[in-house]
Amino acid sequence: MAIIIVSGSVGTGKTTLSKKISKTLNYEYLDVSKLIKDKKLADDYDTENKCAIVDVKKLNKVLIEIIKKSENLIIDSHLSHYLPKKYVDFCIVTTCDITILRDRLKKRNYSANKIKNNIEAEIFDTIVIEAKDKKYNLLVVNTSEGYKLKDIVEFIK
Ligand SMILES: Nc1ncnc2c1ncn2[C@@H]1O[C@H](COP(=O)(O)OP(=O)(O)OP(=O)(O)O)[C@@H](O)[C@H]1O
Ligand SMILES: [Mg+2]
Fold this sequence. Notes:
Number of helices: 7
Low-confidence stretches: none
Strand order of the largest sheet: 2-5-1-6-7
Bound molecules: adenosine-5'-triphosphate, magnesium ion
CATH architecture: 3-Layer(aba) Sandwich
CATH superfamily: P-loop containing nucleotide triphosphate hydrolases
Number of domains: 1
Number of strands: 7
CATH class: Alpha Beta
Order of helices and strands: EHEHEEHEEHHHEH
Strand content: 15-25%
Helix content: 40-55%
Mean pLDDT: 97
Distance between the termini: 11 Å
């Protein structure tokens, strides 16, 4: 049994990588954005960044219930690394070079401000630092450098 969380700044490649791992290892895939909508876990809406504001405590409660019922699961979310360490076997944080990330975010037609805020989060390595603090079994994957899925699968084993 393994619970894998995939976190990282917006647009760094969490979903792409999570789905690849899920397909390769036949793990269940959990789309947390969908879960937040389905379970109405958003408390508020950030009009500047056009995204939901989520109470992480509430989200963790729901995630822990799902984890308890799961065998092999991949949790795809930039909020997944707030889960307590004891529920997480492996944590993968996706990162991306800034110029490439800016292009990815521009393609999504995000506002200049939303792009700036998300680029800043990546420049400051915010999520990598937070995940390190949690002392997870951590792998950082730079998705703009062309990773090998084989290496990631090796890490999970
Ligand atoms: N390894 C990769 N090589 C090239 N492009 C990639 C790679 N991974 C992701 N991308 C591209 O980057 C963009 C963002 O990827 P993805 O949706 O997986 O990111 P995300 O972290 O899940 O984003 P969000 O935070 O919005 O959920 C997509 O256009 C995707 O095709
Ligand atoms: Mg995603």
